[in-house]
Design goal:
The two termini are 44 Å apart. The chain has a nine-stranded antiparallel β-sheet, with no helix packed on it. Strands 13, 17, 20, 21, 24 and 25 form a six-stranded mixed β-sheet that branches. Strands 1, 16, 22, 27 and 28 form a five-stranded mixed β-sheet that branches. The protein is elongated, with a radius of gyration of 26 Å. 0% of the residues lie in helices and 50% in strands. Strand 8 and strand 9 form a beta hairpin. The N terminus is likely disordered. The chain has no helices and 38 strands.
């Protein structure tokens, strides 16, 4: 992989204008919130924020604010987050942010405003698990940034300058081919085999020294997916199409990229070569040509109510037979039917107990099979077959876990082969 050391540090020179005041009654103390306007100028030749201008091959690319961009601002001793909007009507390097906040000697800000909150010495934010495809850039609101400013006692400084620092890095996946891409997902395992959180809720300590580092919190997730909309993104056989994905800084020793097309095909690419995503840098992959992966047939040795999936991949099973087929029919008539054949019209995921376990679930009416992609993340999912009126006619438990192993058990009655788990 070739890494572009394009630093993503954004400089905002904020001149504050006091426009109006609002009095708030809080614990019998009168507190004043003042309307303020931040004039935001983004430094030239730096990469990232809401969208980035120019072409992928440019050495430097300008950072642009979008109309209606919003930042979350709080004071050093005020736990409430205030929302400031970019009221500029143009997509440009200069943004004008308007909002209300109390006067203070220190201010902290995070971009984007969505889901931001502060608790003790930490500001919390979200790295989106689902990031929308955006041509030539990453999804707006996907890349979080943090800024702070202090007014020292006796200083002539107005405390009006915010220097925004990017908290994440960007992976650019370059694809060639003739297919139309529906979505792209990224997951990674650590050296111990456990999945590494790459999205969801994270935090940054507002009193950090040097450069900021982020910490995962309760609610972080193990996958990031770029969704390409209803029409998808058409690939070109010769010119690579870039897909921008925001990820937390880390070295991913084992990772998997899965690519689904609008016609139901899936490609899975796994790598054991370490991938380093650095804060405020863009890392590009070499051009990858799309090639469909082979399905694994779960019902090859017979149908079932439950299928175990032990690794990432594309899986399919026979959806024309309920459960174990005739082997599951009770001779005493206790079962609800004696007809084991069904004719589904569609398939749906009823629930997953963890986010990102399976995706891209489809029903093939010609083959009468259900297919899905597993990321390899452990957990449980329930798939349902539905008729033409959207009624559920059968369901299957997908158990994503390590591969079962048999153990020899000896007692007074003999030697037995048993599984390594209870069912």
């Amino acid at each position: 992989m070739k890494r572009i050391h394009t630093y993503i540090k954004t400089l905002i020179c904020a001149s504050i204008i006091l426009s109006s005041c609002t009095r708030i009654e809080n614990n019998n103390i009168d507190e004043i919130k003042s309307e303020r306007i931040f004039s935001a100028l983004i430094q030239d030749n730096l990469d990232t924020k809401t969208i980035i201008d120019g072409e992928l091959g440019d050495q430097y690319r300008k950072t642009l604010w979008l109309p209606n961009d919003s930042i979350a601002v709080t004071t050093g001793n005020y736990s409430q987050i205030e929302k400031f909007y970019n009221v500029s009507t143009d997509t440009s390097e200069v943004g004008i942010f308007r909002g209300e906040i109390m006067n203070n000697s220190s201010y902290f800000a995070i971009y984007p405003y969505n889901s931001a909150r502060i608790e003790n010495d930490s500001m919390f934010f979200v790295i989106p698990e689902t990031q929308m495809y955006y041509p030539g850039s990453f999804s707006p609101d996907a890349a979080p940034m943090f800024a702070r400013t202090y007014i020292e006692e006796g200083s002539n400084s107005s405390g009006s300058e915010f220097t925004f620092t990017n908290l994440c890095g960007v992976l650019v996946i370059n694809l060639t081919g003739e297919e139309c891409v529906k979505n792209i997902s990224f997951t990674s395992k650590g050296e111990d085999g456990t999945y590494i959180p790459v999205s969801g809720r994270w935090s940054v300590n507002i009193n950090y020294q040097g450069m900021p580092t982020i910490n995962r919190t309760f609610g972080s997730s193990n996958a990031v997916t770029i969704e390409c909309g209803d029409d998808g993104v058409q690939l070109d056989p010769t010119n690579p199409t870039p897909f921008y994905m925001v990820l937390p800084p880390a070295t991913y020793s084992n990772f998997m990229v899965s690519i689904a097309t609008t016609d139901g095909k899936i490609m899975i690419k796994e790598s054991t070569k370490p991938l380093t995503i650095s804060r405020a840098n863009v890392t590009k992959t070499s051009a990858l040509e799309y090639a469909e992966s082979i399905d694994i047939n779960l019902s090859e040795r017979g149908t079932s109510n439950c299928y175990i999936v032990s690794e990432a991949g594309i899986y399919t099973f026979d959806a024309s037979i309920i459960g174990n087929g005739t082997y599951g029919i009770s001779e005493n008539g206790y079962t609800h039917t004696t007809d084991v054949a069904i004719e589904p019209s569609s398939v749906a995921v009823l629930w997953m107990d963890r986010s990102g376990i399976i995706s891209n679930t489809t029903y093939n009416a010609e083959k009468k099979t259900i297919s899905f992609m597993s990321t390899g993340i452990e957990g449980n999912a329930l798939l349902a077959a539905k008729d033409s009126e959207d009624n559920i006619i059968w369901s299957w438990h997908i158990w994503c876990t390590d591969k079962p192993a048999d153990h020899t058990y000896v007692n007074d009655y003999g030697v037995f082969s048993v599984q390594d788990r209870n069912l």
